[in-house]
Amino acid sequence: MVRELTHFIGGQHVPGASGKFGDVFDPNIGQVQARVPLASKSEVEAVIADAEAAQPGWAATNPQKRARVMMKFLALVQDEMDSLAALLSSEHGKTIADAKGDIQRGLEVIEFAVGIPHLLKGEYTEGAGTGIDVYSMRQPLGVVAGITPFNFPAMIPLWKAGPALATGNAFVLKPSERDPSVPLRLAELFLEAGLPPGVFNVVNGDKEAVDTLLHDPRIKAVGFVGSTPIAQYIYETATANGKRAQCFGGAKNHAIVMPDADLDDVADQLIGAGYGSAGERCMAISVAVPVGEETADRLVAKLTERVHKLNVGRSDDLGADYGPLVGLDGVNRVNNYVQVGIDEGASLVVDGRGLTVEGGEDGFFVGATLFDNVTPEMRIYQEEIFGPVLTVVRAKDYEEGLRLANEHEYGNGVAIFTRDGDTARDFAARVQVGMVGINVPIPVPIAYYTFGGWKRSGFGDLNQHGPDSIRFYTKTKTVTQRWPEGERKAASPGHSASSAPNAFVIPTMD
Ligand code: NAD
User: Fold this and answer.
1) Which tens digit of pLDDT belongs to each residue from 458-469?
2) What's phi and psi for 378, nearest 5 deg?
3) Hey, which of 156, 203, 215, 230 would you mutate to test ligand 1's pocket, going by the most ligand atoms within 8 Å of its Cβ?
């Protein structure tokens, strides 16, 4: 039976009223399992109104109490980890273990947000001038929106909602229409944790819903994660409408493999980083860059052996290394890129097309694919494939490997494998990429650092989570205060009154 999903507005499930729906698939079997309502402009405007009404009360709740709501939410999600992971996996197609990782990395940002009483402390200068003190405070923006991708349906909504809510904002989440059930369940759990109704809302939708959020003046900030063309569109539209925006886009992450690296270890790591979650990760390694022909020959041999052993299966198969892609469009895109790679002259070492999985004959599966002898002019090198395809670009030396990463239009993540500290240090200093791994293939920073790519992987000044997220979701107010002398001082022995500042000149801090 096909379930009909809802929105979550003002603390309750609200059925769609637009008459428009999107299909949510079970990617294991290629069948529609639910219909998700796609909100109209007027429905989105009603959500914003609810959020705007709820926000002042939440902002006036002291930070300790807001932190307690976050703590309760954390416990509720942890208690429900197994069922949430199963739900996530059933719509996305990632394995259960990977789905738990998706939720867990989201919860780490909630843990960070629990520290909000400390994170919100402002600055204070006593006696900046005679009788003058200066202090700053961070205040919430009001109603903010998050627009999130399909590939981390728990983690990315939580990366945005955690800091946004903890700082006293109301939040309107427009999750991916491909896997909206986990965000809807998270909304119920926020309510159960004590978040007032209307402070966290989920509105499902497509471009119409997003455009309404981008143009409505009551939305003060937009956080986006998704593909680069949409990230750029959202950044430009949101900022043209006077909003703050941080928009994170696609990626092509390189792993430079130096001749001194332990190639067995590197091959193991690249298999996980390249094919985990069917390559549907913005931090997946999609380009391996062995340095020197001998390193390349040995690495390709080790990768080939491991790729053949990968177990692709249903997402609920506990023995599967990875599951299906989220949709048939993804399968077609990957298959198309494999053909492009062949036509461009790359060497197809392992061809994953046409894979059939037992119990998932009509599912959206693609086997692991490996290309060697890929060159920078090829589309399979330049463009994001977002599937289980690892490409090998051979570099003659370290400088060429570094240059490849630096000249690529994307700059999300990068890794270097080496035993040499000097090379690693030089790499970290010179590489033009936002997140760097040294013998770590997927360097997603921990919650109290910030996450963000460079170049066309990120638009906006501030990163996600960590200290940047507190800055992004608050505005700074700076107060300069002077209290005129009162009776207490005037009455004290030996006191002579100080003169009032000249109101006709710009005050200086004497
Ligand atoms: P997507 O760009 O198709 O969709 C992302 C969101 O934008 C969804 O909520 C979708 O409904 C909305 N959207 C889609 N088209 C739109 C349009 N024309 N106008 C307005 N809104 C629109 O991305 P996706 O396929 O869901 O996710 C995969 C992409 O996300 C990949 O490119 C991946 O690299 C990227 N990603 C990046 C990061 C990062 O941190 N840099 C993290 C995860 C995923």
Assistant:
1) 999 999 999 999
2) -75, 145
3) 230
The dihedrals phi and psi of 403, each to the nearest 5 degrees, come to -65, -40
385, with CB counted inside 10 A (0-12, 13-18, 19+), is buried
Instruction: Identify the structural domains of the chain with CATH numbers, from first to last.
Output: 3-249+460-474 (3.40.605.10), 253-455 (3.40.309.10)
Q: How far is CA 417 from the centre of its chain?
A: 25
144 to 170, 174, 227: CA distances (angstroms)? 6, 11, 21
Nearest CA to ligand 1 atom 26: 149
pLDDT grade, residue 196 (50/70/90)? very high
| Residues 6+ away with beta carbon under 8 Å from 75 | none
Antiparallel, parallel or unpaired: β 124-129 and 7-9: unpaired
In short, whether 249's Cβ falls inside 6 Å of ligand 1 is yes
Pocket test for ligand 1, best of 227, 277, 444 (most atoms within 8 A of CB): 227
% helix / strand / coil in the chain, to the nearest 5? 40, 20, 40
Q: Mean pLDDT, to the nearest integer, of 394-405?
A: 98
Asked whether 45 and 59 are in contact (CB, 8 A), the reply is no
Task: Please write the tens of the pLDDT for every residue from 232-260.
Answer: 999 999 999 999 999 999 999 999 999 99
Residue nearest to atom 18 of ligand 1 (CA): 207
Rounded to whole angstroms, the Cα distance separating 324 from 89 reads: 10
| Dist CA 144 CA 161 (whole Å) | 9
3-state secondary structure string, 111-151?
Answer: HHHHCHHHHCCCCEEEEEECCEEEEEEEEECCEEEEECCCC
Position 105 pLDDT exceeds 80? yes
Q: Which amino acid is at 47?
A: V
Lateral strand order in the sheet of 12-14: 12-14, 7-9, 200-202, 170-174, 143-147, 219-225, 244-248, 458-459
Instruction: Please give the Cα distance from 93 to 156 (Å, whole number).
Output: 17
Number of H helices, E strands in the chain: 17, 23
Q: How far is CA 409 from CA 383, 412, 463, in A?
A: 9, 10, 19
Residue pointed to by tokens 């004590």: 194
Residues forming the active site: 282
For residue 476, the model assigns a pLDDT of: 97
Sign of CA dihedral 17, 22, 25, 31: positive
Q: In whole angstroms, what is the distance from residue 463 CA to residue 461 CA?
A: 7
Amino acid identity for residue 207 in this structure: K
Question: Tokens 């990977």 identify what position?
Answer: 98
Dist. CA 103–CA 100, nearest whole Å? 5
